[in-house]
Amino acid sequence: MASVSTYLNFNRNTEEAFLFYKAVFGTEFSCPIMRFKDGPGCPEGGQLPEADANLVMHVTLPILGGHLLMGTDAPESMGMKLVQGNNVYINLEPDTRAETDRLFSALGAGGTIESALQDMFWGAYWGTLTDKFGVRWMFNCATK
After folding, report:
1. Hey, where are the domains in the chain?
2. Which of 86, 94, 111, 120 could make a disulfide contact with 100, Cβ separation 3.0–4.6 Å?
3. Going edge to edge, which strands form the sheet with 88-93?
4. What is the mean pLDDT of each run of 10 residues along the chain (144 residues)?
5. Is 5 helix (H, G, I), strand (E, B) or coil?
6. Which among 101, 98, 131 has a CA at the least distance from the CA of 116?
7. Sequence-distant contacts of 117-124: CB under 8 A, at least 24 apart
8. Helix, strand, or coil here: 115?
9. What is the DSSP letter of 76?
10. Residue 34: phi, psi to the nearest 5?
11. Among 122, 123, 115, which Cα is nearest to 143's?
12. Four-way CATH pick for 3-141: 3.10.180.10, 3.40.50.920, 3.30.930.10, 3.40.50.880
């Protein structure tokens, strides 16, 4: 079933923020916290700095009404540069790749593609863009 969630980027304190949100909403993480050391490494093929290995790659917390709050740390060692204002995405999880392609194309018209839609190691079809109004969108389609 299609869904929408909010994706937050943090400067090395995602775990602290999400433990706070967990206490506030009284809910549990949907799955264990995924750390950068659990992934395939830096996209440019470089070595992940030891100081970044335990940072949060992904966390999901249900909050109200089925809405999911998701988050990640944004380490500069992986080419990310966090600036207040670029730390929020509207995360769309369409039911099909065709719908993902349609939404990506429509929202990307006149905007900037950050990461083209592609198959990712966690099994999803994923990409990000900023639309022509400056709103940041993330797409994550689990359907093959």
Report:
1. 3-141
2. 94
3. 34-35, 56-62, 68-73, 3-10, 88-93, 136-141, 125-130, 112-119
4. 90 93 93 92 69 95 91 90 85 94 94 96 95 89 88
5. strand
6. 101
7. 121/39, 121/40
8. strand
9. G
10. -95, 130
11. 123
12. 3.10.180.10
Contacts of 45 (CB under 8 A, 6+ apart): none
Task: Output the six-digit token pair for 124.
Answer: 């999803």
Compute the distance between CA of residue 29 and CA of residue 112 in angstroms, rounded to an integer. 32
Within 10 angstroms of residue 52's Cβ, the number of other Cβ atoms is 18
**Per-residue confidence (pLDDT) for residue 86, from 0 to 100:** 79
Confidence (pLDDT) at 109: 93
Tokens (6 digits) for 115: 């990461």
Give the residue carrying structure tokens 């490494």: 41
* One-letter identity of residue 10: F
